[in-house]
């Protein structure tokens, strides 16, 4: 589901410093979907989000859940790779364990609707991932459901239910797709407002580098950016080039996308 301005356009006019996370992302205004997302709108901390994940999983017949915000693909000097921006799980878990093509990253990128899966042999999971499920004693409940969120500015994310039966997973996808997609989108928006992004993007950007990328994200030309910042066009070009190098971006557009995904700039 798209993480667009579907909720944001309903944001309350209350002063920003008094807004809760749910207010900031537009989930509590009269015209929003607050009634549908229920207690999720009350979350203000990572632990509250984790408890909501637990309740959400149990409510639908699963033993646990995890949230992953993939961010954007990095195309620097190394091979293309992902640097996970946000991660939250109901169980003792390692984000790196799931950042593989076998864990469904490629499927998450291409999917718009929830899909069911099995953690058994032949289902594309690594040995380490299957060992994790075995350690959680999920052998009798090997099924799960992944709900993608296609957040193009900040990078894709997903909410994953695990520890369920195959019949239960298939039934949930067949009967609750709209609700699952809505809740996953709402959770992603809340997570972005509450969970700090990963600091794995490399050296921190300077204030001027951030300013140049933010104005570029708003569609400003180099000349317009230079005029607003009171510097030369060449200086703007240098700031953008340095920011791109720090982010391992291949060009300005890629640098802007990575900065937005990491929460370094907002538009």
TrEMBL record:
GO terms for biological process: regulation of DNA-templated transcription. InterPro entries: Sig_transdc_resp-reg_C-effctor, TF_LuxR_autoind-bd_dom_sf, Tscrpt_reg_LuxR_C, WH-like_DNA-bd_sf. CDD domains: LuxR_C_like. PROSITE patterns: HTH_LUXR_2. Gene3D superfamilies: Transcription factor LuxR-like, autoinducer-binding domain, Winged helix-like DNA-binding domain superfamily/Winged helix DNA-binding domain. The keyword Cytoplasm does not apply. One of its GO terms (molecular function) is DNA binding. SMART domains: HTH_LUXR. This is DNA-binding CsgD family transcriptional regulator. It comes from Sphingomonas kyeonggiensis.
């Amino acid at each position: 589901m798209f993480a667009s301005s579907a909720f944001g356009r309903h944001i309350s006019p209350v002063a920003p410093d008094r807004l809760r996370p749910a207010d900031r992302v537009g989930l509590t205004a009269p015209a929003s979907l607050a009634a549908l997302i229920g207690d999720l709108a009350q979350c203000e901390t990572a632990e509250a989000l984790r408890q909501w994940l637990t309740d959400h999983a149990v409510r639908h017949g699963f033993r646990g859940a995890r949230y992953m915000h993939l961010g954007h693909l990095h195309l620097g000097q190394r091979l293309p790779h992902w640097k996970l921006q946000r991660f939250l799980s109901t169980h003792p878990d390692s984000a790196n364990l799931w950042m593989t093509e076998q864990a469904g990253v490629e499927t998450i990128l291409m999917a718009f609707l929830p899909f069911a899966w099995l953690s058994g042999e032949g289902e594309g999971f690594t040995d380490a991932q299957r060992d994790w499920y075995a350690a959680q004693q999920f052998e009798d409940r090997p099924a799960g459901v992944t709900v993608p969120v296609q957040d193009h500015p900040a990078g894709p994310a997903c909410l994953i239910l695990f520890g369920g039966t195959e019949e239960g997973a298939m039934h949930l996808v067949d009967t609750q797709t709209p609700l699952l997609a809505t809740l996953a989108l709402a959770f992603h928006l809340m997570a972005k407002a509450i969970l700090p992004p990963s600091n794995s993007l490399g050296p921190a950007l300077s204030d001027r580098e951030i300013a140049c990328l933010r104005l570029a994200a708003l569609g400003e030309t180099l000349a317009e950016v230079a005029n607003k910042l009171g510097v030369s066009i060449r200086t703007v070009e240098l700031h953008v080039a340095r920011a791109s190098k720090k982010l391992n971006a291949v060009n300005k557009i890629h640098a802007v996308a990575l900065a937005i995904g990491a929460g370094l700039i907002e538009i």
